[in-house]
Design a protein that fits this description.
It is built from 4 helices and 16 strands. The chain has 276 residues and is an alpha+beta fold.
Length: 276
């Protein structure tokens, strides 16, 4: 997938990886206990980068949709609607940079009858002051020679005084708790940020961390986060790799909590977990 070449500075494989990370980052737990993944994705990029895809834009979107559907199926996630991907020109994005926005969006359609009834309003008919009296009525004129009775001024009605309720002050929003930052330091010194959510590790190009190591399985391991802010924790899990995953020299099974300085081994690739 994503092997077509274009004149854009952004490689399609980079968009594919970022899209799958957005699936993990935006997933939630539904009322039935199933994991619900986002299904509508908007890729914001500079106009020059977008025009560089040219005729490849539609095939690229089709491949991105297919990759997201396959990933959701492999992970056992569900969606509330069909998966949709679009490219959006964003003048705030610098050339070579892009952003993936993901949301959970269910298709809904309002009932036409209810909509029309809700918007209806009663009609009123007023008679013009110049209109003649209705049939069957008579107009009464004052008797000749008798002056009309003087009009008696009517005192204006004073409305009752209504006490204005006191409005309590809005409490100030609490400052957000500081977030922990975790990284994997590979054997060659490369540092890879471990973001909140699920970080997939393997030889597949769709992995969050793709390793060029024949001893690494296509889907080798995962690092999952739990909690938020200063309470964030990370756990290492092997997902059925051929050569296994090592933590401090011991082959793991199940979820293993990571701490600062832990030594990891994926096939023949070593890494060190650091958190600050």
């Amino acid at each position: 997938m994503f092997l077509r070449r274009s004149s854009s500075a952004i490689r399609p494989i980079e968009i594919g990886r970022r899209l799958l990370r957005a699936v993990d980052a935006g997933r939630t737990t539904g009322a039935d206990g199933h994991t619900v993944a986002p299904n509508v994705f908007s890729i914001h990029l500079n106009g020059r980068d977008r025009s560089g895809f040219g005729d490849l834009e539609k095939p690229l979107i089709a491949e991105l949709v297919e990759a997201a559907e396959q990933y959701v199926a492999d992970e056992g996630f569900t969606t509330v609607g069909d998966i949709a991907v679009s490219l959006t020109t964003d003048s705030t994005m610098k050339p070579g940079k892009f952003e993936v926005q993901a949301v959970v969006k269910a298709g809904q359609r309002l009932d036409a009858g209810l909509s029309e009834a809700a918007s209806g309003s009663p009609h009123s008919v007023q008679r013009s002051p110049e209109s003649p009296p209705a049939a069957g009525t008579q107009s009464v004129s004052p008797a000749p020679g008798v002056p009309p009775a003087p009009s008696v001024p009517v005192a204006p009605v004073t409305p009752p005084t209504v006490a204005t309720p006191s409005i309590p002050p809005v409490p100030a929003a609490a400052a957000p708790a500081p977030e922990k930052k975790a990284v994997l330091v590979l054997g060659d010194g490369t540092k890879v940020a471990v973001r909140l959510g699920v970080m997939s590790i393997g030889r597949s190009a769709e992995s969050s961390l793709s390793l060029n190591d024949t001893n690494v399985s296509r889907r080798h391991a995962e690092i999952r986060s739990r909690g938020e802010g200063v309470r964030s924790e990370w756990f290492l899990r092997d997902v059925g790799s051929t050569n296994g995953t090592m933590l401090n020299g011991v082959k793991i099974s199940g979820d293993q909590k990571l701490k600062n300085g832990d030594a990891l081994m994926f096939g023949g690739t070593s890494a060190r977990f650091e958190v600050s």
